[in-house]
Write a structure and sequence with these properties.
about 500 residues; Glutaredoxin; four-stranded mixed sheet; Immunoglobulin-like; alpha/beta; six-stranded mixed sheet
């Protein structure tokens, strides 16, 4: 009898445990053999393709995945050109129907989680660029050309009314309270990010510099308060806004210090606001990595819970972008200075794969750091080993976020060109002191191809030989050389452009 009771208890526990997982199933109508569904759980509000899971539909087009979370999670599902934000929650399985032949209605839902995901689809939460006031920024004579005061007095009330209307729509959906709260939070900070980042970036120019720092920042921080701890646990957009909130507070504090004539008074206010002296920041040995410096030193600029979450989010960015030294240093700082065990454990978990990747790919024979990388002073020497081959040059730097973002699209491109006479040559602009950082990045990210590193001074003549004027020299930059060593495309498409770059490379191969 006891044995039967034990078996029943185990079955009940198993069923309850399964019910606590987040479950996503789906069917792709019209799937082809090599199709995959990309599922991404953003951390800290950041979408990193490297953090994605790729699911292969079976012969019937079906796929399935479960996540070991016990609370609501926003995830991003991508199939071909379609992208959809989803909300998964315990005990509410979701089934996604993907119809390849209906790009405008590619995703439809069934299951217990249908109602909330129909709402999210209607709200288009996967990208703040879907908001109408952001779309207006690209129109001719848009309000982006207004003065800061005009935007604050005329446009911001309209934006806030739109936010209130959207929140009412969420409330009218009659969802369970936890789901309503999750979606309402995501909506609020989707608007906050659109205002602080998209609109803010346009207004923060030379013409508006004073009014941006004296009026716009204060207005945004007043309208969109710092996310609570609960909101940061629920919402990806809240975490993204935490970064904007920190930057706004930083910019405002630094601006006030620099414009105050009484520097003794200014420094005392700066210490109260940030916990550190401005002069100490200027003389800090970590000044070369300002993101790390400001985030770790300016402790009191955020409440303790938000500061610790901000550090954890920053560590995730370091880990995802392959910055081993910065990540190791920040992890040590977090373990020494933070009190939230959940964040410390999450930080330790993030760091482990980074070190494993460095060791795993160190012996990859397809990663070749050229022995002459310190002596390559001309384009002729650079291209000499590749006669008869097409050469794709990626000019980048370990300090360049956009360079790193595009690199995640290169493995798929290389797969399509496998066996072809093409060389991927990575020309990095990094200083000698960052040699180890450069090497670690290459191996951590399994960056197959040939590698050269030049300092800022050394790379300047190469830019000139490549025929790019100073005003056009920006990173990343891509070149395609034909088999004879002549430049065929001096501003090639980016890897994230997918098929467009593939066609350019294919044209060079066919020449």
């Amino acid at each position: 009898m006891k044995k039967i009771q034990l078996i029943l208890l185990l079955l009940i526990c198993t069923k309850v445990g399964a019910g606590q997982q987040l479950t996503l199933t789906g069917t792709v109508n019209g799937a082809t053999k090599h199709d995959s569904i990309e599922v991404n759980v953003p951390y800290g509000g950041e979408y990193w393709k490297k953090n994605s899971i790729y699911l292969r539909p079976d012969r019937t087009g079906s796929f399935h995945i479960s996540f070991p979370y016990h609370a609501e999670k926003f995830i991003i599902l991508t199939y071909k050109e379609g992208r959809q934000c989803l909300l998964l929650s315990p005990g509410r399985p979701l089934h996604v129907n993907i119809n390849v032949n209906k790009p405008q209605q590619m995703f439809t839902f069934s299951g217990k989680a249908k109602t909330e995901n129909d709402l999210i689809k209607k709200l288009k939460l996967e990208d703040e660029h879907n908001l109408s006031f952001i779309k207006e920024l690209k129109s001719k004579n848009s309000y982006a050309n207004w003065s800061v005061d005009s935007v604050i007095n005329i446009k911001l009330p309209v934006i806030k009314y739109s936010l209130d209307s959207t929140q009412r729509l969420v409330h009218q959906a009659m969802l369970p309270l936890t789901l309503e709260k999750a979606i309402a939070t995501e909506v609020k900070y989707c608007y906050a990010n659109a205002v602080s980042q998209n609109l803010g970036d346009l207004l923060n120019n030379r013409k508006n510099r004073i009014s941006f720092n004296t009026h716009f920042i204060d207005t945004v921080l007043l309208d969109f308060k710092i996310p609570t701890k609960d909101e940061l646990n629920i919402s990806t957009s809240a975490n993204l806004y935490l970064d904007s909130y920190f930057r706004f507070k930083l910019w405002k504090t630094v601006y006030d210090y620099r414009t105050e004539k009484n520097k003794e008074h200014a420094d005392s206010i700066f210490i109260i606001n940030t916990g550190v002296s401005y002069k100490d920041l200027e003389n800090d040995p970590d000044r070369t990595n300002e993101v790390y410096l400001f985030s770790t030193r300016m402790k009191t600029i955020l409440p303790p819970y938000a500061w610790e979450k901000h550090l954890t989010n920053l560590l995730f960015s370091f880990c995802m972008s392959g910055q081993l030294q910065s990540a190791a240093k920040l992890l040590h700082f977090i373990k020494t200075n933070c009190t939230n065990r959940q964040y410390i454990m999450a930080s330790e978990k993030m760091f482990v794969p980074l070190k494993v990747s460095r060791d795993q790919y160190a012996s990859n024979i397809n990663i070749k750091i050229r022995p002459d990388y310190k002596n390559t002073s001309s384009l002729k020497v650079l291209l000499a080993p590749y006669k008869g081959k097409v050469v794709f040059i990626d000019m980048w730097g370990t300090w360049c976020p956009h360079c790193i973002e595009d690199m995640v699209f290169e493995p798929a491109l290389k797969d399509r060109l496998k066996g072809k006479d093409i060389v991927f040559l990575y020309l990095a602009r990094d200083e000698d002191k960052d040699d180890e950082v450069w090497r670690d990045f290459i191996f951590i990210n399994n960056l197959t191809g040939e590698h050269i590193r030049r300092t800022a001074v050394q790379i300047a003549p190469l830019w000139n030989e490549l025929g790019i004027p100073d005003s056009k020299q920006a990173y990343p930059h891509y070149f395609i050389f034909d088999r004879s060593g002549k430049v065929m495309v001096n501003n090639a498409k980016r890897p994230s452009d997918g098929n467009a770059l593939y066609q350019q490379l294919q044209a060079a191969l066919n020449k």
